[in-house]
């Protein structure tokens, strides 16, 4: 039995009309390597330019020194009396319009950190210690003389005047808003979630300045928080004494007297303790080694960037010419 197989002539016609193009779309690695090898001198030249530029850039960057201190939250030795009063006389105190604060308020350590980062504290800190020039005009540090050198285009050290040229609304002397932005980049305050320890660090051209600023920050934040609590306790005592004079109810007067006693304890606790909020565990030291820049890393990254840019340029040039042809 003979079987004849007939083929559809349209099959050959379709193949002729739509030739396979998968081979043209595939990337030929040998071709890429060949193109890169042919353009090796251009790649080497671009890489060398970027490498030299990275080296020059790294050398011109001034050394930045970092000084830091490790702090522990000061133990709360007060507040227990208020809690006891709240549980014992809460009902009567509410009749007198006095809030005993039965539940804990804002974490004092976290509050101190936020105050430390605030614009008001930073502005007062800069003005109190007269560090505006060290913050905004320092150009480099003379190791031998242990002295900061200021940018003459910004600040005249001889006359202690600002000579920088700026457009309105800015003035030759930097404002506290400008100083706050610059200071915020130099200071870091971090709190460990596990231990509650707080680290305060300052980066500056001068290692001595960095260490001094950390010490001042710790001293000032403790004083600011202490002054706040003392002022609040004094205001509370004045109010409570007025309430005592206005009431004849013996139980309420007892509560008010105990509250006055607690406020006196608060004032006494603050006055006898310098490390009011933060207790220094590891004080700031004058760093001997720079923290940045990492010049070797800058040179390596610059060289790699130049090499990648050179390879891309050679490949793009090749494929543009190929498509044009």
TrEMBL record:
<feature type="domain" description="Tyrosine-protein kinase G-rich">
    <location>
        <begin position="279"/>
        <end position="318"/>
    </location>
</feature>
<dbReference type="InterPro" id="IPR003856">
    <property type="entry name" value="LPS_length_determ_N"/>
</dbReference>
<dbReference type="InterPro" id="IPR032807">
    <property type="entry name" value="GNVR"/>
</dbReference>
<dbReference type="InterPro" id="IPR050445">
    <property type="entry name" value="Bact_polysacc_biosynth/exp"/>
</dbReference>
<dbReference type="Pfam" id="PF13807">
    <property type="entry name" value="GNVR"/>
</dbReference>
<feature type="transmembrane region" description="Helical">
    <location>
        <begin position="296"/>
        <end position="320"/>
    </location>
</feature>
<keyword id="KW-0472">Membrane</keyword>
<protein>
    <submittedName>
        <fullName>Lipopolysaccharide biosynthesis protein</fullName>
    </submittedName>
</protein>
<keyword id="KW-0812">Transmembrane</keyword>
<keyword id="KW-1133">Transmembrane helix</keyword>
<feature type="domain" description="Polysaccharide chain length determinant N-terminal">
    <location>
        <begin position="25"/>
        <end position="128"/>
    </location>
</feature>
<dbReference type="GO" id="GO:0005886">
    <property type="term" value="C:plasma membrane"/>
</dbReference>
<feature type="transmembrane region" description="Helical">
    <location>
        <begin position="41"/>
        <end position="59"/>
    </location>
</feature>
<dbReference type="Pfam" id="PF02706">
    <property type="entry name" value="Wzz"/>
</dbReference>
<dbReference type="GO" id="GO:0004713">
    <property type="term" value="F:protein tyrosine kinase activity"/>
</dbReference>
<keyword id="KW-1003">Cell membrane</keyword>
């Amino acid at each position: 039995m003979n079987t004849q197989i007939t083929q559809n002539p349209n099959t050959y016609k379709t193949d002729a009309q739509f030739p396979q193009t998968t081979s043209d779309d595939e990337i030929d690695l040998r071709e890429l390597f060949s193109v890169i090898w042919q353009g090796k001198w251009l790649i080497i030249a671009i890489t060398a330019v970027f490498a030299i530029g990275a080296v020059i850039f790294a050398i011109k960057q001034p050394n930045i020194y970092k000084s830091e201190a490790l702090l522990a939250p000061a133990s709360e030795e007060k507040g227990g009396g208020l809690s006891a009063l709240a549980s014992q006389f809460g009902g009567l105190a509410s009749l007198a319009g006095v809030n005993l604060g039965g539940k804990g308020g804002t974490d004092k350590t976290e509050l101190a950190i936020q105050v430390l980062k605030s614009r008001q504290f930073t502005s007062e800190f800069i003005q109190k210690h007269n560090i505006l020039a060290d913050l905004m005009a320092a150009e480099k540090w003379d190791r031998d003389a242990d002295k900061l050198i200021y940018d003459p285009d910004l600040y005249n050290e001889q006359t202690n005047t600002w000579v920088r040229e700026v457009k309105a609304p800015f003035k030759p002397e930097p404002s506290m808003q400008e100083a706050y932005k610059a200071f915020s980049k130099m200071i870091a305050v971090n709190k460990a979630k596990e231990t509650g320890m707080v680290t305060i660090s300052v980066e500056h051209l001068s290692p001595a300045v960095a260490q001094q600023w950390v010490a001042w920050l710790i001293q000032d934040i403790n004083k600011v928080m202490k002054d706040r609590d003392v002022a609040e306790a004094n205001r509370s005592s004045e109010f409570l004494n007025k309430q005592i004079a206005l009431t004849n109810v013996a139980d309420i007067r007892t509560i008010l007297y105990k509250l006055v006693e607690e406020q006196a304890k608060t004032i006494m606790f603050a006055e006898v303790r310098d490390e009011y909020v933060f207790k220094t565990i590891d004080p700031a030291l004058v760093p001997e080694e720079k923290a940045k820049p990492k010049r070797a890393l800058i040179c390596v990254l610059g060289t790699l960037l130049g090499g990648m840019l050179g390879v891309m340029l050679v490949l793009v040039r090749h494929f543009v010419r190929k498509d044009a042809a």
